[in-house]
Structure formats: C-alpha cells, structure tokens
Design brief:
The chain is mostly beta strands.
C-alpha cells in the first residue's frame, strides 16, 4: 500500500528571529541548518472499529522521494512529497491518519533532503 502526502514549509526566518517561544521549528543561525525545518511524519491505518491495523514499512521500494517514518528537511518556502510504502496486516482499512511525529530546527537523525 502506498500513501503520498505533499508537505510545505511555510515557516520564515522572521518566525525564528521574532519569536517569543524557543520552540519555533526553523533554524535562525548562520550554521548549515539556517532556514531549515526538520520533521518526521508517520501514518496509522484504522479498521472500521477504529482499531489500529499494524503495518510494516516496506524499504525495498526505491523512490526519489523521502519515505514516510523518516526525518527529512525542508527550507523555508520549500515543498516536497513524502511516500509511505506499507505492508498492512489486513486490507480491511476504513481510513488512515498522517501525523507529525516531530518538527524541529535541528536534525534528530540522519536526514534526507
């Protein structure tokens, strides 16, 4: 099963420079991470009774896009597509939910961009 989602980073450097919270997810330094946000998406599959359907991520499919369940980076104003390649334990899927595991201004793991 493949699920694709388009993601856009609308955070700007002004968000990073003029914020009151220390948690604005875009870099504001002169380092390599300047104006980048790092995020990780995940997906849950649900059956008709709202129970989660277990699914393994298929890593043998090659794609130019980042796979789901992996961290990736986006510059301010940049858009990308994320592709989830899953092998569900059941095809009795009623709906799915894509959610953000985290979004930050500094990489947490190995990053694809």
């Amino acid at each position: 099963m493949m699920i694709g989602v388009t993601v856009r980073n609308d955070y700007t450097l002004e968000d990073a420079e003029n914020y009151e919270s220390q948690n604005v997810p875009i870099g504001n330094s002169t380092s390599i991470y300047h104006s980048w946000s790092f995020l990780k998406l995940n997906v849950n599959l649900y059956s008709w009774d709202d129970s989660v359907i277990p699914a393994e991520e298929v890593t043998t499919i090659y794609s130019p896009n980042p796979n789901g369940c992996r961290e990736f980076a986006l510059r301010s104003g940049e858009t990308t597509q994320v592709l989830f390649c899953l092998l569900p334990s059941s095809l009795n899927i009623d709906y799915y939910e894509i959610f953000v595991d985290y979004i930050t201004d500094y990489p947490q793991t190995n990053v694809t961009s």
